[in-house]
Automatic annotation (TrEMBL), chains A, B:
GO terms for molecular function: DNA binding. Pfam families: HTH_37 (PF13744). It comes from Pseudomonas laurylsulfatiphila. This is Transcriptional regulator. It comes from the Bacteria.
Length: 101, 101
C-alpha cells in the first residue's frame, strides 16, 4: 500500500510535491486564509481576477474576523478547495448542510 | 482498548447513549441545523433563550442558506458544540483560523 502511494506521489511535478508537503505539514493545523493562499502559491492578484474583484478587496477579506459563509466559500473555491462546515460535539462531528450549494 | 471505551459508554445515561448513537449514525453525514438541534433533544424555545432571541428568530435562522460565521458559531455553541471551518483540497484538509474567537 505504502509503495503504491509513494509511486503516485512520485509521478507529480516537483512543484506540486513541494506544495503537498507544505500542506501536509500543516494538515489539520490551524492556518489563516492568507497563509493557505500562499501555500497554494497564489497571489492576491490572481485570486482577485478569479473572483472578479480588485486586489485590495482580497487583502481586506483576508484581515476580516467575520464574513458571510458564501463569501468564504467563494474565496476557498477560487483556490481550488471546498469549504466544509463542521459542528464538533463530544459525541462526534456533524457536517452542516444548510449552506451547500 | 475497545473494552475500556465500551465501559466508558456504559457509564453514560440511557438518554445520553441514545443521543450518541443517533449522532454516530449520522457521523460525517450531512445534516441541516434543525435536525442537529433535534438530535441534541433541544427545542427552538430552549435555544432561543440561550441566545437571548425569540423562537421566531431561531426558526428563521434554521431556514437561511447563508449567514455570518459568527451567527452560526453562536448557534452551534448554544447546542454545546464547536464550529470548525475546514478547507478541503485534493492534498488534504486545513482548518481556517481567521474566525476563531
Amino acid at each position: 500500500m505504502a509503495k503504491k502511494f509513494a509511486d503516485l506521489v512520485a509521478r507529480r511535478s516537483p512543484e506540486s510535491q513541494a506544495r503537498v508537503e507544505a500542506l501536509h505539514q500543516k494538515l489539520r493545523a490551524q492556518m489563516p486564509l492568507h497563509e493557505l493562499r500562499q501555500a497554494q502559491a497564489l497571489s492576491q492578484d490572481t485570486l482577485a481576477r478569479t473572483l472578479h474583484v480588485n486586489q485590495a478587496a482580497i487583502s481586506k477579506m483576508e484581515r476580516r474576523t467575520d464574513m458571510y459563509i458564501s463569501t468564504l466559500r467563494n474565496y476557498i473555491r477560487a483556490m481550488g478547495g471546498e469549504l466544509e462546515i463542521i459542528a464538533t460535539f463530544p459525541e462526534g462531528q456533524v457536517k452542516i448542510e444548510n449552506f451547500a450549494n
